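Deliverable D5.2: sample structural annotation.
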Amino acid sequence: MAILPLIGETEEITFTPAAAGGDEFDNAAGTSGLQLKNTTGGDLRVEFVEQRDCSYGEQDVHTSRIVTVLAGKTLRIPRFDMWRYNSTAKRVEMVYPDGEAGLEMAALDRPSV
């Protein structure tokens, strides 16, 4: 998996193309978010890898772990629950069920947003 750079609160948002094997970004402080951009004419899904069961004892059953970025649109996800999504390296991992072509993203460290 490719590691996305974490863009600070005062830095300009720059997008990185999605990697074929998936991507990951730092969420050690639990304040990281993600902005996704779909440059294609069709909808694209992004799946976030759940590392641990949620408080209801279920894993891999929540629709919120999969988001759909509509054709030609951007989607912002403000935060990721570090207890549910952080890997042992304190990163959020994601894969692309519809492929990575035309999908761009920016990992954001924006505690005030």
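Annotation notes: The two ends are 27 Å apart (CA to CA). The mean pLDDT is 90.
The annotation will be released with the project's public dataset once the embargo ends.
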